[in-house]
Design goal:
By secondary structure, the protein is mainly beta. The chain contains five helices and 25 strands. The strands form four sheets. Strands 14, 15, 16, 17, 18, 19, 20, 21, 22 and 23 form a ten-stranded mixed beta sheet that branches.
C-alpha cells in the first residue's frame, strides 16, 4: 500500500531570480481594457486514475495528472495520509535531475522507515494547486503503476472532487460550496500531523477513522482488533501489508462490520489489523484507530474533500438512483 509520508526536510536556501520587466510599448493613451474573468481551472487526465474495480484482491487508486517543472503530466497517487509529495527515480530521470544533488530524507511509512534520496524542483502543479519550489523524496515503485505520491501540502484551501464511477478527479479552489443534493455532509478534523479524521462507530465501538486515499487496504490497530474480538470470537486470515519503504508486516484480516459515520453507513469493507509501525510513530496505539483505505472508500459513488470547509461530502451508490 502507499505509505504515509512523515518527513523532516532540511532547510535550504530559496532559489532567487530577478524578473525581467517587459519593454514599454509606446501607445498614445490607450483605452483601459476590461479584464475577462478567468474560468475555474479543473484538471482531468485522459488516462484513468481509478484504474481497477474495487474488490478485495485488486484495489484501484486515485491518480492525479501532475506537471513538474512544466514536464509531464506524471501520474501521482492522491494520498490524503501523506504529509508530503514524492516521486519515483524514473520521474527524476525524466526530469534530468541527478539523485545526489539534494540531501537524503527520512521516509516514514506504514510498515517501516528508510533514508531515501530527494530532488529539488521548481514547481509542482495540478489543477489549482501549485507548489514552488518543493523538495520531493524518492519513493519506491510499489505504487501499482503510478509515478509517485501527491501529498497534502498546499491543500488547505482546496476542494477535491472524486467521482469513482466516472473515473474523474478535479482539484480546485474551495468556494465553500454546500453539499449537492443526495450528498451526506460529514465534519472533518485535521490532526496535528495533518491527517484527515472523522468520528466513526463500528459495532457500537467509538473509532478514530483516518481517511487514507493512498492506502490499498483498510488497516486497524491492535486496540481496534481487541475491541472487536471482545464482541465476537473468530479467526482471521493472515495477510501482508507493504509500505512505500518496501518493508512488509503481517496482520489478521476480517470482514468489517458496517462503519457508521454520522448518518452514513459503509457496508462490505474489510480490514487488516496489527501493530503497524506507523501507529507507534503517530502514538495511536491505545485507542481504536482505523485507517480507511481505498478498498472501503471505493465502495462510495462520489467523494468530495473540502479542506477549507473541513468536511467530507459523500454520495453512496444507492443514493444516486
Amino acid at each position: 500500500m502507499v505509505a504515509l509520508l512523515c518527513m523532516s526536510v532540511p532547510s535550504q536556501g530559496e532559489d532567487m531570480s530577478t524578473p525581467v520587466a517587459p519593454a514599454p510599448v509606446a501607445a498614445p493613451e490607450p483605452a483601459p481594457l476590461a479584464m475577462p474573468q478567468l474560468p475555474e481551472v479543473a484538471i482531468i487526465a485522459p488516462e484513468p486514475r481509478y484504474v481497477a474495480p474495487t474488490r478485495r484482491d485488486r484495489i484501484g487508486r486515485i491518480w492525479a495528472p501532475v506537471l513538474i517543472d512544466g514536464k509531464g503530466p506524471f501520474r501521482l497517487v492522491l494520498d490524503t495520509g501523506a504529509s508530503r509529495s514524492g516521486v519515483t527515480a524514473a520521474v527524476a530521470g525524466a526530469l534530468g535531475i541527478p539523485l545526489d544533488r539534494s540531501p537524503r530524507l527520512l521516509l516514514r511509512g506504514v510498515t517501516g522507515s528508510a533514508a531515501v534520496p530527494s530532488i529539488r524542483v521548481g514547481s509542482l502543479t495540478v489543477g489549482d494547486l501549485t507548489l514552488s519550489p518543493v523538495t520531493l523524496p524518492i519513493v519506491t515503485d510499489a505504487l501499482g503503476g503510478a509515478e509517485g505520491v501527491l501529498g497534502t501540502e498546499g491543500l488547505n484551501d482546496k476542494r477535491i472532487y472524486i467521482d469513482f464511477l466516472h473515473d474523474t478527479i478535479t482539484i480546485t479552489h474551495s468556494r465553500r460550496q454546500p453539499a449537492p443534493e443526495q450528498f451526506t455532509t460529514i465534519p472533518l478534523k485535521r490532526s496535528r500531523l495533518g491527517l484527515l479524521e472523522v468520528d466513526a462507530r463500528v459495532s457500537g465501538i467509538p473509532v478514530r477513522a483516518i481517511i487514507d486515499t493512498g492506502g490499498q487496504a483498510t488497516v486497524g490497530n491492535s486496540a481496534m482488533l481487541a475491541a472487536l474480538l471482545r464482541q465476537r470470537r473468530e479467526n482471521g486470515n493472515i495477510e501482508k501489508i507493504e509500505g512505500v519503504t518496501t518493508d512488509v508486516q503481517t496482520g489478521e484480516a476480517f470482514n468489517l462490520p458496517p462503519i457508521q459515520i454520522g448518518t452514513l453507513q459503509i457496508v462490505g469493507g474489510r480490514a487488516v489489523y496489527g501493530d503497524m509501525r506507523i501507529f507507534d510513530t503517530w502514538k495511536l496505539t491505545n485507542e481504536p484507530v482505523l485507517m480507511v483505505g481505498m478498498d472501503t472508500i471505493g465502495l462510495l459513488d462520489t467523494l468530495i474533500i473540502d479542506y477549507r470547509l473541513r468536511e467530507l461530502q459523500v454520495r453512496t451508490r444507492a443514493s444516486r438512483y
